[in-house]
């Protein structure tokens, strides 16, 4: 008579111990993962902040002659909100340049909310008497080959703002040529340059009206320093 095949021992009643062990293991893994991420963030945060400040310093120096001021722009920052001048609910950061304690210029970091594909970030440098020292685009999502002509790597278009003011040309001509203004548009793209021209004009108008109170305000901690 053949022997009956052996059977594995019964696991016994399931009292939920296995489930709790699995849950505890998953919880431990989650805690360890969070801890590792926090550690990596802490280690790299200062390095990232330093890199961001170096990038911003380079861009600021491209549009504002370093010899024209003797203070630290990163330590002389204020933020402003003006829904009329700066639409889109934005907070504008203003880097103030001084020489021997006297105001000489400012760089406004603001946005043009009405680009073809949405938001365009700009740096606009302006002297105390309202002359543009330079404009740079720091971020955009415009169409490659069309709207990306606002980048200095793609064209010299933004250099046309340097030396301009609201008297050259007058406010009514701060438009693209297609709309009767003095600024070129791109072939097949009008919305992107229009947005930048309008943003620069708004910055000039706002600065001319508020420069005295702007430079009288105490400095705030810049976002780069706070990172």
In percent, how much strand structure appears in the residues? 15-25%
Compute the number of helices: 3
Shape: globular
How many domain units? 2
How many beta-strand elements?
5
With strands numbered from the N-terminus, the spatial order across the biggest sheet is 1-2-3-4-5
Low-confidence stretches: none
Mean pLDDT level: 87
Instruction: Note the gap between the termini.
Output: 82 Å
Helix share, percent:
25-40%
Cα Rg: 28 Å
Order of helices and strands: HEEEEEHH
Major sheet attributes: 5 strands, antiparallel
Q: State the secondary-structure class.
A: alpha+beta
Pfam family, one: FMN_bind
Domain FMN-binding: 115-207
Cofactor: FMN
Family: Belongs to the RnfG family.
Give keywords.
single chain, 227 residues, alpha+beta, 3 helices, 34% helix, 19% strand, electron transport, transmembrane
Précis, in short:
This protein is of the alpha+beta class. It has helices at 17-63, 191-216, 223-226, and strands spanning 77-80, 92-99, 102-115, 118-127, 132-139.
Task: Give your account of this protein's structure.
The protein has helices at residues 17-63, 191-216, 223-226, and strands at residues 77-80, 92-99, 102-115, 118-127, 132-139. The protein has 227 residues and is an alpha+beta fold. The chain folds into two domains: 18-63; 66-222, no CATH class. It has a five-stranded antiparallel sheet with strand order 1-2-3-4-5. Strand 2 and strand 3 form a beta hairpin. It is globular. The termini are far apart. The mean pLDDT is 87.
């Amino acid at each position: 008579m053949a022997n009956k095949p052996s059977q594995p021992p019964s696991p016994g009643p399931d009292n939920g111990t296995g489930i709790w062990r699995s849950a505890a293991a998953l919880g431990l893994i989650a805690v360890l993962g969070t801890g590792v991420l926090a550690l990596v963030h802490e280690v790299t945060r200062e390095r990232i902040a330093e890199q961001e400040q170096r990038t911003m310093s380079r861009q600021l120096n491209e549009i504002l002659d370093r010899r024209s001021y003797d203070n630290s722009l990163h330590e002389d920052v204020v933020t402003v909100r003006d829904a009329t001048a700066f639409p889109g609910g934005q907070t504008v950061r203003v880097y103030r340049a001084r020489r021997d304690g006297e105001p000489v210029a400012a760089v406004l970091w603001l946005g043009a909310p009405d680009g073809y594909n949405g938001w365009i970030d700009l740096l606009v440098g302006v002297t105390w008497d309202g002359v543009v020292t330079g404009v740079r685009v720091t971020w955009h999502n415009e169409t490659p080959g069309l709207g990306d002509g606002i980048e200095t790597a793609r064209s010299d278009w933004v250099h046309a703002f340097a030396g301009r003011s609201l008297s050259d040309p007058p406010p009514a001509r701060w438009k693209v040529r297609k709309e009767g203004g003095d600024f070129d548009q791109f072939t097949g793209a009008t919305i992107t340059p229009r947005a930048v021209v309008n943003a620069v004009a708004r910055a000039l108008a706002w600065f001319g009206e508020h420069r005295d109170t702007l430079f009288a305000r105490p400095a705030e901690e810049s976002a780069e320093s706070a990172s």
